[in-house]
Amino acid sequence: MDPAGPLRLLWLVAHGHARSRMDLARALGLPQSTVSVRTQALMSAGVLSESGEGRSAGGRRPKLLSVNAEFGHVWAADVGSRHVRIGALDIAGNLLEVHERPLDISQEPRELVAGLAAAVRDVMAGAECPGRALGVGVAFPGPVDVNAGTITLPSRMPGWRGFAVRDALAEHFELPVVVDNDANMLALGESVSGAPGRTLLVVKAGTGIGSGIVLSGELYRGRAGVAGDISHVRVPAAEDQPCTCGNRGCLEVVASGAALVGQLQAQGLKLETTAQVMATAEDGHPEATTAVRRAGLRLGEVLATVVNFSNPDEVLLGGALSGSEAFVAAVRGALYERCLPLATRELRIDRVRFGADAGLYGAGALALDAVFEQAIKRSGR
User: Fold this and answer.
1) Which residues are CB-contacts of 341 (< 8 A; sequence separation ≥ 6)?
2) Which has the closest alpha carbon to 214: 201, 195, 227, 196?
3) Fewer CB within a 10 Å sphere, N or C end of the chain?
4) What region, left, alpha or beta, does residue 205 occupy, with left being phi > 0 and alpha being psi -120 to 50 degrees?
5) How many angstroms separate the CA atoms of 277 and 275, rounded?
6) Which pTM value belongs to this model?
7) How far, rounded to the nearest angstrom, does the alpha carbon of residue 255 sit from its chain's CA centroid?
């Protein structure tokens, strides 16, 4: 996705950060001629309109830009291990409504796709959103080949290897469908809504662990789409424990939500889900709190290498585990202890700004990007 593309432009206009083409040029750091071409393309496509006059800065009064909300909206779905979050976003990338439905990721692929599509269609039927539905974006908890629309080598989704999930979903919707890994969607959503040109390391720590990388404002997937997959980095704390990926000693074995459930069950706690672990830790249970803090330290140890290597502007934490202050503090402490002082001097370490909805913002952004690309092509620009 172009870091200065249509969605970024629309976000700036819709949120009042830019009211004219000149404002956009300043905000995006682009020549005014380039911004004018992009603005005109969106106007020809019916996404933007220009009317009225703003305050003069010494020359002609600039015409004011506005987003045509009636152009339509997109739907986004963020698939977890036991549920799916479903949301609608307007064409500026604003989340309009959110719903949650049960969904078991362990199902056979076509069965899960049918259940997911039915849940989305059910929510769509009762929604009151501007304009027509334009597309669907879906985040999956496993590696995705974005170009082919397939799941590749998933460690927690048996039977999904090579499954053409985008085509399977398209059979249920008369709309364009885009798919990507959930951590990438998280990173994309954070990137679009923030200052342009940043380098971000965005981590999703829930039942599993994944991360997305945004380099100078652009999502980096790598050649095979697995950039940022830190969950299978070997760590001393995991020793020789087997991992679902087929290797041994992976970070996910000791620091994921699934790992915490197993560790606490072995200590006699009757817990079945990551959410239950978090609730128990928040209630002050010593074993649960210690386990969550320890998981944060182990994640931070791995992230320290990534931070030293990539020198990002921000490290942002999402997923269920990021809801724990003990977890976030442990990650932050490990980074400050293990990273070069220059790497952390201006480094922001925080939670993702959109919380549990962060994946929906990213999935919606990817869907909107595809919609705008098609609309601009149809307009001849």
Assistant:
1) none
2) 201
3) C
4) beta
5) 5
6) 0.90
7) 20
Alpha carbon distance 86, 162 (integer Å): 25
Contacts of 373 (CB under 8 A, 6+ apart): 6
Q: Which of 268, 360, 354, 281 is nearest to 321 (CA)?
A: 281
**Mean pLDDT over the full length of the chain:** 90
pLDDT tens, 204-228? 999 899 999 999 888 999 887 888 8
Which residues contact residue 130 at a Cβ distance below 8 angstroms, ignoring those fewer than 6 apart? 69, 70, 71, 72, 73, 90
Query: Residue 33 and residue 358: Cα distance in Å, rounded?
Result: 33
Reported as half-sphere exposure (CB side, CA atoms, 13 A), residue 360 has a value of 24
Give the tens place of pLDDT for each residue, 275-322.
Answer: 999 999 988 899 999 999 999 999 999 999 999 999 999 999 999 999
Q: Can you give the three-state secondary structure of the chain, one letter per residue? A: CCCCCHHHHHHHHHCCCCCCHHHHHHHHCCCHHHHHHHHHHHHHCCCEEEEEECCCCCCCCCEEEEECHHHCEEEEEEECCCEEEEEEEECCCCEEEEEEEECCCCCCHHHHHHHHHHHHHHHHHCCCCCCCEEEEEEEECCCEECCCCEECCCCCCCCCCCCCHHHHHHCCCCCCEEEEEHHHHHHHHHHHHCCCCCCEEEEEECCCEEEEEEECCEEECCCCCCCCCHHHCECHHHCCCECCCCCECEHHHHHCHHHHHHHHHHCCCCCCCHHHHHHHHHCCCHHHHHHHHHHHHHHHHHHHHHHHHHCCCEEEEECHHHHCHHHHHHHHHHHHHHCCHHHHCCCEEEECCCHHHHHHHHHHHHHHHHHHHHHHHHHCC
Close Cβ partners of 172 (under 8 Å, ≥ 6 residues apart): 113, 114, 117, 118, 121
Q: Tell me the average pLDDT across 6-21.
A: 85
> Which strands, in side-by-side order, build the sheet including 83-90?
95-102, 83-90, 73-79, 133-140, 177-181
